[in-house]
Design goal:
- The protein is of the alpha/beta class and 319 residues long.
- The chain contains 12 helices and 12 strands.
- The longest helix has 16 residues, at 193-208.
- The relative contact order is 0.18.
- The model has no long low-confidence stretch (mean pLDDT 93).
- It binds iron/sulfur cluster (SF4).
C-alpha cells in the first residue's frame, strides 16, 4: 500500500523567461500566418515540440531546410553571428529568440576579445549556447569539470566567463583556481539568476520532504545539478524526463511527503502530471483517490508568475 500523503512543488519552476519568450515568439509568428520554423528544438521536451508541430511550427536542423521568405526563430541559447548573417543572406525572416541574458554574455565576450584577454569559458562543450558563444570568441578555452582545468594555460591577462546554467559554486571555484594562473584576472559572472534561484528553491524543498523527484532532460547539466543538490542535504532524489518514467512505486517506499522540481526547460504542466501520477502510484488509498485535487493544491501553493508557461493571451497561445 502506498505511503505518500502530500506533494510539495518547489517555489519557482517551469520555463525560465528566455525559453518562454522564444516559444512565445514562435507561436506569435505562426498566429500571424507566417510559415514558421525553429532552428533546433526550442526546448528538449517532447510535449512542447509536439504542441508546436500541431500549431504548424517545424523544427529544422539547418537553415537550408527553410524556404525563402519564411520565418526562422532563433532559440534562447542563441547562435554564432555567422548563422544570423546566413539567414539574412538567404532572405529568411529572422525572429531572434536569443535570451536577453545570453545576448549580454555574447556582448561581454566580444568586449573581452577586443580588450585582448585570453578567455576561459566555463561551459559544457558542444552545448548550443556554448557553440553560439564561441562564435564571439573563437579562441576561448572551454572547460567544464575540474579534471579539465589543468588545460588552462598561464597568461598575463586572463578573463573568466560562464555559460548561463553552470552552478555558481563551480564558477567561484574556477575563479579561485585561475587567480594563481594569471597576473591580471577579469571575472565576468554570467551565471543566470534564474538558474541560481532554481537551485535555491530546490534545496529549500528538499530539506522539507522525504524524497525529491527532479523532472528534466537526462543530459541537461542544470537538471543533474538539481538532483545533486538534493543529495547534498541528504534527501534521496529520483531524476526523470517525464511522467512516463514513473512506473515503479518501490522508489517511493516509506515516503510520506514528496517534493517535485524541474529544470528550466520543463513546463509546469509536466510537473503537474508528475505530481498527480506520484499520488496515484504511491499515495495512501485516500491520497490516490484524491490525486487530481491534491496535485492542483500543491500547484496552487507553489505557482508564481515565474512559473508561467506562456506570456501570450490565450487566443495567440492557442494559435
Ligand atoms: S537559463 Fe537564464 S540565460 Fe539561459 S535561457 Fe533561461 S533565462 Fe536565459
Amino acid at each position: 500500500m502506498g505511503t505518500v500523503t502530500a506533494i510539495r512543488i518547489a517555489k519557482r519552476t517551469g520555463f525560465c523567461y528566455g525559453v518562454r519568450e522564444a516559444i512565445d515568439k514562435a507561436k506569435e509568428a505562426r498566429a500571424a500566418g507566417k510559415p514558421t520554423h525553429t532552428l533546433g528544438q526550442v526546448v528538449h521536451n517532447e510535449g512542447v515540440i509536439r504542441d508546436l508541430q500541431d500549431l504548424g511550427i517545424r523544427t529544422v536542423g539547418t537553415l537550408d531546410e527553410v524556404e525563402q521568405g519564411a520565418a526562422v526563430v532563433i532559440r534562447a541559447h542563441g547562435v554564432r553571428p555567422e548563422v544570423m548573417d546566413r539567414a539574412a543572406h538567404r532572405g529568411l525572416e529572422v525572429i531572434d529568440g536569443t535570451c536577453t541574458w545570453v545576448i549580454q554574455e555574447q556582448r561581454e565576450l566580444s568586449k573581452l576579445v577586443e580588450e585582448g584577454y585570453s578567455i576561459v569559458l566555463l561551459g559544457t562543450p558542444q552545448h548550443p549556447e556554448v557553440v553560439g558563444l564561441l562564435g564571439f570568441a573563437p579562441d576561448a578555452i572551454v572547460v567544464d569539470e575540474e579534471g579539465d582545468w589543468d588545460r588552462i594555460p598561464r597568461r598575463k591577462k586572463m578573463a573568466l566567463i560562464s555559460q548561463s546554467t553552470q552552478p555558481p559554486w563551480k564558477f567561484e571555484k574556477l575563479a579561485a583556481f585561475m587567480v594563481g594562473r594569471s597576473h591580471e584576472l577579469k571575472i565576468v559572472n554570467t551565471v543566470c539568476p534564474v538558474t541560481i534561484r532554481r537551485q535555491q528553491d530546490t534545496l529549500e524543498s528538499a530539506r522539507d520532504v522525504d524524497l525529491m523527484v527532479v523532472v528534466g532532460g537526462r543530459s541537461s547539466a542544470n537538471t543533474k545539478e538539481l538532483t545533486r543538490l538534493c543529495g547534498i542535504v541528504g534527501t534521496p532524489a529520483v531524476q526523470i524526463e517525464s511522467v512516463r518514467d514513473l512506473g515503479d512505486a518501490a522508489a517511493f517506499a516509506g515516503a510520506t511527503v514528496v517534493g517535485v522540481t524541474g529544470g528550466t526547460s520543463t513546463p509546469i504542466e509536466d510537473l503537474h502530471a508528475v505530481a498527480r501520477r506520484i499520488l496515484e502510484l504511491a499515495g495512501t488509498p485516500a491520497a490516490a483517490a484524491d490525486a487530481a485535487a491534491l496535485a492542483d493544491e500543491a500547484f496552487a501553493n507553489a505557482a508564481t508568475p515565474a512559473g508561467r508557461t506562456t506570456s501570450l493571451p490565450a487566443a495567440a497561445a492557442a494559435g
